[in-house]
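Open question from group meeting: does this chain pack into something compact, or does most of it stay loose? Before anyone orders reagents, we agreed to write out a predicted structure and look at it together. Recording both the input and the output here so the notebook holds the full record.
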Amino acid sequence: MSTFDIISFTSADKLAEVAARQWLSEIASANVRTDPFCVALSGGRIAREFFSAAAGLGKGKPSAFTAVHFFWSDERCVPPEDPESNFALAQEFLLGPLSIPEDQIHRIRGEEPPKAAADEAQSEVMRIVPTRSKGQPVLDLVFLGMGEDGHVASLFPEEPEELMRNEAVYRPVLASKPPPHRITMDYPAIAAARQVWVLASGAGKEQVLRGALGPGGKTPLTRVLKMRSHTKIFTDIPLEIPPQGFSQSKK
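Structure tokens returned:
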């Protein structure tokens, strides 16, 4: 049975701070392992605040990220220095401030042709991340944002069913919003992760979030929730009447 926890906040700043603190706690708990902690980062408006909060906390713990390998849940098909690049955002506010070594950073090469970039990203994640029986990598944590239309990563509504049944780890997509050409982690890889944390922030998203969480939801976020046994949703979006069947805490 699929379950999800909603952790509610009164502001984006508080959401970013708590999510960052919990992430560092997860990393610290994993430091007793011999294998790396593998995370997929996302973009979106809340990402800058989340990255800044994590970098601020991490600066006081110089060894915290030594075993963390960074991947991405999606990327725009733009050069790595482009303002639209999810990598550029992470580099400026998280990776650069923490001086993360290059060999721990596995960006999606958005400057290459989309199919080649997706194939290369898939080869890289399969090289480092342990796989399960169905051949999907098992990342320790995948971060997702949520758009006004309920999209997560670069998985958009109204995709043909045959695309949603794809078993690739990464695939090119033609998005319904600019920039149109993107690379996304696909549903099976997101579903296979040990943990998925959705950072859903921003005014005007209450209706789509409530719809995604309801039993009749049809958004990409709904599909992710149904494919997983448990997902965490951090949000500053007010849900005055909680949808049925989930646990909620407020910060």
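Observations to bring back to the group:
The chain has a mean pLDDT of 91.
Helices lie at 12-30, 45-58, 86-95, 114-128, 161-164, 187-192, 206-213, 220-227.
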